[in-house]
Every structure is written in C-alpha cells, then in structure tokens.
Amino acid sequence: MSETDAEGLVDLPPSAKLVYKVLEYNGALTQKGIVEESMLSARTVRYALERLEGIEAVDEDVYFADARQNLYEITAETSPDNCAEPVVCDD
Fold it and tell me: Which residues on neighbouring strands pair with residue 70, listed in sequence order?
C-alpha cells in the first residue's frame, strides 16, 4: 500500500472516531467498557475496533482480570498526522 493510499483517522467512519476519542479520554478499556462509554452497539464497536487496528491506531492486549476479554488502548505511535482534529503545537 503506498503512502497516498494509507488510511488515517480522518478517513474512518464516525463510529471509529468516537471509539478512538473514548479511548483517548478514558484510557485502556475492554470492548464492554467502550460500549458503555460510547453508547454504541457491541457490533458497531467491534467494527470500529477492527478499523482502528487496521490502521494501527489501537493496541489489543489481554485483560488479566478476565482473560475472556481484551483490553484496548491507543498506540503510542499514533501520530498527529492521523488525528481527526488539527493539532496545535506550542514551541
């Protein structure tokens, strides 16, 4: 995939952007936690997480409190170029 074909947060559907923002504000959450915070359906959250994982904007890890669930968090490598909103840098 060339750089011009790369998909960023700006190109994702609103549900994926909302899931990203929920993770940004709340930190790492399980899928169930994201459903509760975003008030989206479980199916919509699953789809949004798939899209976010596809662009490597979120990481999936084991939730040790309940190994049947996964914990999702924003990747450290998510650059401002992929953000849904303009970034203001103070020098």
Answer: 62
Q: Structure tokens of 12?
A: 């994702």
Question: If phi over 0 gives left and psi between -120 and 50 gives alpha, with beta otherwise, what is residue 56?
Answer: left
User: Is residue 91 included in any domain, yes or no?
Assistant: no
Number of structural domains the chain divides into: 1
88 within domain boundaries: no
Query: How many C-beta atoms surround the C-beta of residue 83 within 10 A?
Result: 16
Q: Answer yes or no: is 3 within a domain.
A: no
Lowest mean pLDDT among 33-37, 63-67, 82-86: 82-86
Query: What is the domain range of residue 20?
Result: 13-76
Question: With contact defined as beta carbons under 8 Å apart, do 40 and 18 qualify?
Answer: yes
